[in-house]
């Protein structure tokens, strides 16, 4: 003990060797101070203080973070999912990112990395595929690396209906006014959507005034006579709950 003995407890001496008791970490403590005594066979001694410096060694990154792990369906090809960042005890390290093979790499081919941005290569479709698995490596400037798998979820976005069907496209003359002509149904990629129907102006709406819609039923609203008029043209809109 004495001046400069602050870290004596972190060391031991075996013979003429000075040993450090625990594994040192530059980021926690980068130097130690010890005071050592040498004693000869006649019990005469001399003491001196030493500073032990810890060299900063490049260490492996320990984690990767992705700023977002979901994306809306139908976004454009090469849209950015999120940005990548690394955890590393070495302050000031720089990192490069890459898609690598290994556990969780099933969908690597559907993505690319530009700088620290993860991009989806093609426009995603929730109804076709609602999640992706990728494996990403971060490498520091010294070539040390860490890998992690991520799941990218696709958000289901309400999409436009794509078609309307009418169960019948002909009816007998002389049927009563308000008689059903047929039922309407809609094609839509979104399962579980509900629809309302309306007669709207536009191309093909010439005879809209002769019909009414109740629920999903198209009904004739006039007395029909083949010899007077043998076809009608209507324009119908389907609208989903969104």
Summarize the structure.
The chain is mostly beta strands.
Question: SSE layout and pairings?
Answer:
Elements: E1 11-14, E2 17-20, E3 31-39, E4 45-53, E5 63-66, E6 70-72, E7 79-87, E8 95-99, E9 111-114, E10 117-120, E11 131-140, E12 145-155, E13 163-166, E14 180-187, E15 195-199, E16 211-214, E17 217-220, E18 236-240
Plain-language structure description:
The chain is mainly beta and 242 residues long. Helix content is 0%, strand content 44%. The protein is built from no helices and 18 strands. A 4-stranded antiparallel beta sheet has the order 5-7-10-9, with no helix packed on it. Strands 6-12-11-8 form a 4-stranded mixed beta sheet, with no helix packed on it. The termini are far apart.
Characteristics:
242 residues; mainly beta; four-stranded mixed β-sheet; single chain; four-stranded antiparallel β-sheet; 18 strands
Broad shape: rod-shaped
Distance between the termini: 79 Å
Integer average pLDDT: 97
Sheet with most strands: 4 strands, antiparallel
What gyration radius follows from the Cα positions, in whole Å?
38 Å
Q: Briefly note the structural class of the backbone.
A: mainly beta
List SSEs in N-to-C order: EEEEEEEEEEEEEEEEEE
Number of strands: 18
């Amino acid at each position: 003990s004495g001046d400069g003995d602050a870290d004596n407890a972190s060391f031991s001496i075996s013979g003429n060797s000075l040993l450090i008791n625990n594994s040192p970490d530059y980021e926690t403590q980068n130097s130690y101070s010890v005071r050592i005594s040498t004693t000869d066979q006649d019990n005469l001694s001399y003491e001196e203080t030493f500073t032990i410096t810890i060299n900063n060694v490049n260490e492996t990154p320990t984690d990767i973070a992705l700023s977002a792990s979901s994306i809306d369906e139908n976004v454009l090809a090469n849209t950015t999912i999120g940005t990548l960042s690394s955890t590393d005890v070495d302050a000031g390290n720089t990192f490069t990112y890459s898609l690598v093979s290994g556990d969780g790499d099933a969908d690597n081919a559907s993505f690319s990395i530009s700088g620290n941005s993860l991009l989806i290569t093609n426009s995603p479709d929730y109804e076709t595929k609602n999640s992706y698995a990728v494996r990403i490596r971060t490498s520091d400037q010294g070539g040390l690396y860490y890998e992690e798998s991520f799941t990218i979820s696709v958000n289901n976005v309400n999409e436009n209906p794509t078609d309307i069907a009418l169960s019948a496209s002909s009816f007998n003359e002389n049927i009563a006014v308000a008689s059903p002509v047929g039922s309407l149904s809609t094609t839509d990629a979104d399962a579980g959507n509900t629809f309302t129907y309306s007669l709207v102006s536009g191309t093909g709406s010439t005879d809209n005034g002769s019909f009414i819609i109740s629920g999903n039923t198209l009904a004739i609203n006039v007395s029909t006579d083949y010899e007077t008029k043998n076809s009608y043209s209507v324009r119908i809109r389907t609208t989903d709950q969104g």
